Amino acid sequence: MTTRRHVLHVLAAAPALTACGGEQLPDPAAAWRNPGAGERDPRRFALAHAILAPNPHNTQPWLVTLHGEDGMALYCDLGRRLPFTDPFDRQITIGCGAFLECYRLALRHLGYAPVITAFPDGEPSPRLDAKPLAHVNFGARTDAPADPLFDYIAARRTNRSPYDLTRIPHLTDLQKLADAAYERTGEVEWALEPERVAHLRDIVWRAFELEMHTPGALAETFGWLRFGRDEVARHRDGLAVEGPLIGAAKLFGMFGRANMLNPNSEANRQALQDWRRKIDTAPAFAWLSMQENDDTPTGRLTAGMAYARMNLAATGAGLAIHPWSQGLQEYREMASIRSELRTALQNGENFPHMLVRIGYADPVEPAARRGVDAIMRPAAGAP
Fold this sequence. Notes:
This protein is an alpha+beta fold. The protein has helices at residues 4-12, 42-50, 90-109, 171-182, 194-212, 215-222, 228-235, 246-251, 257-260, 266-279, 297-316, 335-345; strands at residues 62-67, 71-76, 115-118, 134-137, 187-191, 225-227, 239-241, 285-291, 320-323, 350-359. It has a 4-stranded antiparallel beta sheet with strand order 1-2-4-3. Strands 5-8-10-9 form a 4-stranded antiparallel beta sheet. The longest helix has 20 residues, at 90-109.
């Protein structure tokens, strides 16, 4: 017999996406298969890889215009921000920086030395605005070897599964992450000692629980949840909630707004239990920091580039990564935990931008992507 508990277990498990059919809906995973195949414009080839970048809540907050023979301008899709939990657009800017790094890696793969100009019309304050975040041109042709991180763009995943507590990441592999991020002035540190890992688990769990009990944060996350294959395929963004019983749960109204926005509902209580089990399987944590004086829009964009490299290096090392940066978010309710977490990370003068649990886990399928055409907009003056 199908019980509410069975359905809710599926809800919290964050299962994999699969190709959709039957209703002629788009395949939400199509962008990951041979990205850029058949594209004649190097920019579209690079964009096909850039859209696979990690980004908060899978909002895919990118808009681009193409200029001349080799120019690309990146903008933020202002309707895809997270205004409650990310009031200064830090996480969104990091996601845009990750997009830029994947774009750059793809152009390097084609033999170019791309030139990136951050915020060419000036930095916005306090939030992102309609001005471009970056202009990118091909730059000169180069015979230098391509960056090996390019090879991992289409293989990268955010892995929300339980991790293997019996396998601790090797220092040599963690150093690969640090070396990769350092090329974009990022600094990667980690915690492997059981006592320190347990302390960080406690802090990040309290941050997660607080977010679940903060109405504005819970409502914002709910807006990006996609329940079942049809919703995933129609939107091709957001956080997928998939499984064989999702259809039945929707039919009985278990994912209705009132139910999902009640932190004490059975759905959310079960979700909290299952997420707690996941955080308790974190064998290690790693975090990305920038220098304190780099906490500017440009610094955040650079942090995103460094985070993409850290993430890709983890993929190359066979490590699973899952961001748990709730405790670093800057909304009012999180202030006390944010201060506690920064102290626990012992960053000194560095400013932490991303915190992840890291280890080994079973492979997962990719998150949905909307495709290159969805982020294109005409250049000014174009017909």
